[in-house]
Give the backbone structure.
Amino acid sequence: MDKHTKLSFVWIILALMTICVTSFGISKNIKTRTSIVRQERASSQQLKDSKAAYLQKKNIVNKAVINQSLNSNNDVLKSVAEQNVNNKTINQVAKQFFTTYYTWSDYKSYMDRANKLQNIITSELKNNKSIFDDGKDSTGGNYLKNTGIQSEFDSSVAYLSQSSDSTAQALVKVVNASWYAGQRNNSGQSTRYYDLTYNLKTHKISDLKQVLIQKDGDD
């Protein structure tokens, strides 16, 4: 083997060694990164599990405290507990009702609202035309079909005003967005206030009256 051949062979060996070292380094980096990603995922899941366990324990403790307060011989403590329970209940009911009431995409879904809500409203309220109208204006024209107006529920919050063993009454603030067909990007928001009465025995809304409305641009 001549000198030139030996040098070529040495360079080939060195090149192969360099490739091996580089490949080993890349492989090691990939494994390291993979390990880090796995550790991050494991830590994230562990954090989620810890939060879930904490919330579950918190709910159990809260329920125990509430139940103890409701059965307390202390009238003040019992009254506060009842107010807290009723406030939570009427907020949940209000959100359930208004989510459906202020969400429709066409005339059919608008008219279907009463049927969808019949399990949480009285038959009298279901048939109340001031709450569930027929989508027509004073001339008999179908303004819903003519304008293509649509709506989407945004939020609600109920402020408990009074409650007893059988009923809870609250002022409910409701926000919704509405727009004409094909103009979703030009939607406007409205804020309405309702007096809502909920029967704690029958678990149904027995009365509902709109008391105020504010639209975008109103003072």
Observations:
- The mean pLDDT is 80.
